[in-house]
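ok, trying the design again with the full structure, not the truncated one.
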C-alpha cells in the first residue's frame, strides 16, 4: 500500500498508484486524477469574507509561469493578510511571492509582511476604491514586518479584478 496521502489531507491512504487514473481514492469514489483535480483547485473564498474572492483571482493571475516569475521578481516577499469581517471573525490568507508564487489560506511560512484590515477595506483596496497609504494613515490598515515590502502589494492586488 503506498504511503501517499490524498491532497485533501485525509488520514486515509490512497489505495492506488497516483499515476493510475483507473483506481480510486479510498474515501471517495473518484479516480485519483479527478480527486486531485477537484481538490487542488479548491476555492480560497470564504463566504463570511466577501472580499476573499480576490485571493482566487490573484491565484488565477499567477497560473502562467511568466506571470508567476514576474510577480516573484516584483514582490520578493511573503505577504500575509489578516481580515476581520463585520461579525468580528478573523481569517488569514497568504501570497507567497518569494519562493513558490502561490496563494493559500493561513499565514504561510515566515511572512515578510503581515497586513491586518477589515474585509470591507480589503475589498475596497482590491477594487481601487481605497488607497493603502490612506488606510494606513487612518489606522484602518495595520502593517507588521517590512513596511517597504508592503508598498509592493498594490500592483499585485490590482491583478484581482473583482
Amino acid at each position: 500500500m503506498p504511503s501517499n496521502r490524498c491532497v485533501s489531507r485525509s488520514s486515509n491512504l490512497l489505495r492506488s498508484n497516483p499515476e493510475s487514473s483507473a483506481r480510486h481514492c479510498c474515501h471517495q469514489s473518484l479516480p485519483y486524477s479527478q480527486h486531485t483535480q477537484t481538490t487542488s483547485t479548491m476555492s480560497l473564498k470564504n463566504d463570511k469574507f466577501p472580499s476573499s474572492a480576490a485571493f482566487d483571482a490573484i491565484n488565477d493571475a499567477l497560473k502562467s509561469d511568466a506571470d508567476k516569475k514576474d510577480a516573484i521578481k516584483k514582490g520578493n516577499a511573503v505577504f500575509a493578510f489578516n481580515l476581520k469581517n463585520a461579525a468580528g471573525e478573523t481569517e488569514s490568507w497568504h501570497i507567497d511571492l518569494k519562493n513558490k508564487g502561490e496563494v493559500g489560506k493561513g499565514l504561510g511560512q515566515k511572512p515578510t509582511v503581515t497586513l491586518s484590515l477589515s474585509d470591507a477595506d480589503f475589498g475596497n483596496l482590491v477594487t481601487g476604491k481605497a488607497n493603502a497609504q490612506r488606510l494606513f494613515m487612518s489606522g484602518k490598515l495595520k502593517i507588521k514586518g517590512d513596511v517597504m515590502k508592503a508598498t509592493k502589494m498594490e500592483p499585485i492586488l490590482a491583478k484581482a479584478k473583482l
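Keeping the full-length input from now on. Residues 1-40 have pLDDT under 50 and may be disordered.
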